[in-house]
Write a structure and sequence with these properties.
The N and C termini lie far apart (52 Å). It is globular and about 60 Å long. It folds into two domains: 66 residues, Chemotaxis Receptor Methyltransferase Cher, domain 1 (Orthogonal Bundle); 200 residues, Rossmann fold (3-Layer(aba) Sandwich), CATH 3.40.50. Helix 5 crosses helix 6. The protein contains twelve helices and ten strands. The chain is of the alpha/beta class. The structure holds S-adenosylmethionine.
Length: 282
């Protein structure tokens, strides 16, 4: 199915309203490749028909299908390595130390925002399990959220094909934390139990979320416009403890989002901490 430039405009506006993802005029190929089958499935002959059906019939199921199809769910276990090294060797040990002086010394709250099919939160869970010998006596929750219903359902199942596992997984971790079931590998209950999943749009208010000790918000803000990206990270700052840790994608930076975060370095990794001394930077 071919898309006209007028259709690109209206579909782009619809996609923006549904999930904040920006599609410009060069993204006609993306609309054609990802939304043609959705259009056909619901009996639409053109993208205009699909637009009107989704926009004005207020079909929630169709809107969900469009969001699922248009968002990029590419992910892998221990993606980019270095954030997970910084998590293991810096963020968690420091957080555990600073927790020791608080009223809840064994409580950790972590958020994997835009978790896709779950590889990121489960990677975090495996690292926690490696580092905290008495993890069963801790109160730990990794909240994993994504706008895509399909991604959240797959993530919650925690079962992966061999090709999804091989990308990024260390063999020792595979043996220790997965159960092979025929051609798939299922994350063990001890890691699954650390993670809770919710469908959430990052553009909606974070009601009931936080405060988080550690946030992973990686490879999602690249699809947003600068104002929405800024708003997202400012709201994340408000949902974090002052000594928290924020990890963003390898190619992402918070240079353009204001003074709410300070970059920190650990070996090859950059992470961010809430800026508790904003006045000094102004
Ligand atoms: C490329 S994946 C990143 C997955 C993981 N964070 C990583 O770095 O491997 C981007 C994810 O962002 C999600 N996403 C896109 N727009 C979103 C929004 N407005 N709110 C929440 N999640 C969104 C997509 O559904 C997709 O699963």
């Amino acid at each position: 199915m071919q898309v006209t430039s007028e259709e690109i405009q209206v579909i782009a506006k619809l996609v923006y309203d549904l999930c904040g993802v920006i599609l410009d005029q060069t993204k006609g190929y993306l609309i054609e490749s990802r939304l043609s089958s959705v259009a056909q499935e619901v009996g639409c002959q053109t993208f205009s028909e699909l637009y009107y059906k989704a926009r004005y019939d207020h079909e929630k199921a169709l809107q969900t299908k469009i969001v699922d199809a248009i968002t990029t769910q590419e992910t892998l276990f221990f993606r980019d390595d270095s954030p997970f090294e910084a998590l293991q060797h810096k963020a968690i040990p420091e957080m555990v130390d600073s927790k020791a002086k608080t009223a809840f010394p064994k409580r950790l709250r972590i958020w994997s925002a835009a978790c896709s099919t779950g590889q990121e939160p489960y990677s975090i869970g495996m690292i926690l399990s490696e580092l905290i010998p008495d993890i069963h006596s801790w109160d730990i929750n990794i909240l994993a959220t994504d706008i895509s219903d399909t991604a959240i359902k797959l993530a919650s199942r925690g079962s992966y094909m061999a090709h999804e596992i091989q990308r990024g997984m260390k063999p020792a971790m595979l043996d220790k934390y997965f159960i092979q079931e025929g051609t798939t590998y299922r994350i063990k209950d001890e890691i699954r139990a650390l993670v809770s999943f919710q469908q959430r749009n990052l553009h909606k208010p974070f009601i009931g979320l936080g405060p988080f000790d550690i946030v992973f918000c990686r490879n999602v803000a690249i699809y947003f416009n600068p104002a929405d990206k800024k708003s997202l990270f400012n709201r994340i700052a408000d949902a974090m403890v002052p000594e928290g840790y924020l990890f963003v994608g390898f190619a992402e930076s918070l240079m353009d989002v204001g003074t709410n975060f300070v970059p920190q370095h650990h070996c090859r990794s950059v992470f961010y901490q809430p800026n508790t001394n904003k006045a000094a930077l102004v």
